[in-house]
Amino acid sequence: MSKLKVMTVFGTRPEGIKMAPIIKVMEKTCEIENIICITAQHREMLDQVLNLFEIQPHYDLNIFKPGQSLTEITVRALEGLERVIEKEKPHVLLVQGDTSTVFAGALAAFYQKVKIGHVEAGLRSGNLYSPYPEEANRKLTGILTDFHFAPTKTNRDNLLKEGYPEEKIFITGNTVIDALQYAVREDYTFDLQLLNDIDYQNKKVILLTSHRRENIGKPMENIFKAVNEIALKNEDVEVVFPIHLNPKVREIANKVFHGNSRVHLIEPLDYEPFTNLMAKSYLVVTDSGGLQEEAPSLGKPVLVVRRETERPEGIEAGTAKLVGTDYENIYREIDILIKDEGEYKMMANAVNPYGDGKASERIVDILLKHGMDQLEG
Ligand code: UD1
Ligand code: UDP
């Protein structure tokens, strides 16, 4: 029996988390041979995901360099991928999301006329510079894609509006929900004692993350200053901030939060403790893409500290609010949620606009059906 040869390419923490459930389903599918190639655009932050999901890549391009520029990431990934694709000659190459690895992966496949599947296709903010460079990466990848795996109907409609043919677009849900169901448990205890010591019943724990390139500088300073002031003024608030390894983010965080004992600055958490911490938290404040999808599913209100979002579904469902990056607005919105029980309850609803935990199975089924047709045709 001829097998469908799929090459999965990913490089950063969120890509790894969202690609892992698809890899797990492919491992159980005997009609598919899956070749895993990581660019390792992220190193430590990706390795923790590989460990958790027990994924052993066939190829590790190891392109990571501290302080890497967008050009460096793209060029190094493109060069490495050319050799791997030439050698393996996959029928389909799968990429996930909007990072520079995704764009380089799609371009490298296109250069060798390999079919491309884009997981998490069709997200659009409408502003090419926000998120930067992710909005552009998504659009550039879309042009080269043969199978658009759109998480939601909104994502599908975005692609239709751009003229992509209906038969190439598949609504699948987002695989992040599949991963989340794998990781979150009621009785979870943390390796980091600090996180076990927090009184989640009587304190309002704010989980903070921020790393977006377009926020680095003044916007990020505003975000951190607002959260810092909230923690200073409210004895019942504690903040946990697992800081992204980007030194530019660390510098701002260390400066603004210095000396505030109600703010815990910690290293990035592995996916399992991180999602379990989210499940125990009161409120999420973030500019992350993935957290906007996870928080609604866990019934946690999320304040999105960005000007635009390509994920409007959480906002429409009422669990997320886009609050921008101005100090006053962020302060006010957090203040409302820690003081106004009614407002909090209105947002703290578990809804799942992003999927039902079966996105990976759908993606693999579609690949099998359409990929095999092409093999046989
Ligand atoms: C990248 C993606 C972004 C995604 C984010 C997820 C691009 C252009 N950006 O942004 O879309 O939302 O990952 O986190 O593709 N670093 C380490 N070790 C690591 C990872 C990062 O030290 O394991 C530090 C390095 O100093 C590195 C910096 O973080 O230079 C930034 O990493 P990079 O991959 O360039 O961009 P991110 O901001 O992480
Ligand atoms: N995450 C994690 N540890 C952390 C912070 C985040 O495992 O300390 C997970 C989070 O659950 C989500 C993903 O990483 O699934 C989001 O990654 P990030 O915010 O870096 O990227 P984005 O989603 O913005 O592209």
Task: Write a concise synopsis of the structure shown.
This protein has about 375 residues and is of the alpha/beta class.
What would your notes on this structure say?
With 377 residues, this protein is an alpha/beta fold. 47% of the residues lie in helices and 16% in strands. The chain contains 16 helices and 13 strands. The chain has helices at residues 13-27, 44-52, 70-88, 100-111, 134-144, 153-161, 175-183, 193-197, 218-233, 247-257, 271-280, 289-297, 313-317, 327-339, 341-347, 359-376; strands at 4-10, 32-38, 59-60, 92-96, 115-119, 147-150, 169-171, 204-209, 237-242, 263-266, 283-286, 302-304, 320-322. The chain has a 7-stranded parallel sheet with strand order 3-2-1-4-5-6-7, sandwiched between helices. α13 (313-317) links the parallel β12 and β13 (320-322). Uridine-5'-diphosphate binds next to α1, α11 and α12.
Give a list of the ligands. Answer: uridine-diphosphate-N-acetylglucosamine, uridine-5'-diphosphate
Tally of helical runs:
16
Which of globular, elongated, flat, extended, rod-shaped describes the shape? globular
Biggest sheet statistics: 7 strands, parallel
Based on secondary structure, the structural category is: alpha/beta
Strand fraction: 15-25%
* Count of distinct strands: 13
